[in-house]
């Protein structure tokens, strides 16, 4: 790739990102796997590999314990598939979100262990465990060895007394890479493969191809909203390429059910089509179905299980819409216009409160926590919450500053879960609002890098060559926001209001050689104004549209 041949609009975008020399641009547009850090740079990796290799040699039972979200289920599936390729049949468990709760559950683990009838095991947690020192202690007392792999913030206080893989530990060489839980699981698998190869394990067969497992990494990392660091960008880009041609039956079935056959995959495809389908099962207490799908070994099972996921997803949508309407109606009870946060509590389904929080963030652009009111067997009321943040506000740091008012919490910058007792709820709300206000004040002097708009004509942006290079800016997410463009001289050929409440618009924009279709979500109030004056200034992003097997480009109208 010769950078001097890049379209001028692409060069302008790269320069605004601070990428000016040849090697920086090459590395950004064509990231390579060989630039990734060595797995042994992660604190605890040598000990984890030693324990597992010895376990494999001795025939020790291996148990993988994951989380119920996309990051956790993809991480679980990655390790299950990897161990099977080694000729080891692991046991696995993802908790029931509605019964077991988040993280390790000692009673639930004991039940699993009883069903296995073994007294010598290695438990590997993925995407959880860092906040479970007591549970780890209890599990080790049952005769096993525990390895915690996690990416959530290290809590204040005691850590689990076991081997830990978590880049947030002091002294870890991976501290700034912001890996998702599935990213940590991938590095563990890669380190294991290297150690086993050095020990002659694969002399009678082929070693696992690690790139095949990167599809799981792309799904989990994008869905978990972690920062698109240089390292994550490499993992996700390679993972999206792997997904497009995957031979893993469950992933193949999942993509087909999501309508993503044909055309290149985008971050939005995963965020809005694939991720929600995986998540739906966990939100309704059946995350094991998602893992069953992603670890199945034939297309028949894949089709059957993906159909079950589709059913969960439709049910989740219905519950979510009902809960969102209820939450918006209740907002005024807890919030004022000058509040820095959105907080709402009610009799919501605890499995969808995270989605509801995300949708409220989209509406009010404030850090949001949605609480589900729950009553225990003794009649005590507690509020179980799920929070989502906005760019520039570190949610977990805000919660850490209020931790004396919280029963328990965990998460990362953009998403977190917590429990607050009924008698502390009002005080917590006030304290949380204050912490967000403090962060905003502290961040006022920091230059804003998000939301940079690039000016150019629709014809220029939507040209085949520009779109080809725009795809190389993928993946998009925190730290690498999707580009937004501005055309000051656009003419609307047609406009119609769409959606159940006519809250969206569908437009056709005149181009020099062809017209461009576009959709503006939440812009229904612009309809009459556009009809009166079709000569407009348009802010937009290109997006891939898929309909009945036909893949084409259209505009996502941000403002008009």
* Counted beta strands: 16
State the separation between the terminal residues, measured CA to CA. Answer: 36 Å
Q: Radius of gyration, Cα only, in angstroms?
A: 24 Å
Shape: globular
In the CATH hierarchy, what is the architecture of the largest domain at level 2? Alpha-Beta Complex
Report strand %. Answer: 15-25%
Write the topology of this structure.
Blueprint lengths: L7 H9 L5 H8 L15 H14 L2 E5 L4 H16 L5 E3 L12 H11 L4 E6 L6 H8 L4 E5 L13 E3 L15 H18 L15 H10 L6 H15 L4 H9 L9 H17 L3 H9 L3 H32 L11 E5 L6 H12 L3 E8 L5 E8 L6 H6 L7 E4 L3 E7 L3 H19 L9 E3 L2 H4 L2 H7 L13 E15 L5 E6 L6 E5 L6 H6 L2 E13 L2 E10 L1
Parallel strand pairs: 1-2, 1-3, 3-4, 4-5, 6-7, 11-12, 14-16
Antiparallel strand pairs: 7-8, 8-10, 9-10, 12-13, 12-15, 13-14, 15-16
Helix pairs in contact: 3-7, 4-7, 4-8, 4-12, 7-8, 8-9, 8-11, 10-12, 10-13, 11-12, 11-13, 12-13, 13-14
Please supply descriptive tags for the structure shown above.
alpha/beta, 19 helices, Diaminopimelate Epimerase, Chain A, domain 1, 5-stranded parallel β-sheet, 5-stranded mixed β-sheet, OB fold (Dihydrolipoamide Acetyltransferase, E2P), 560 residues, inorganic pyrophosphatase (n-terminal core), 16 strands
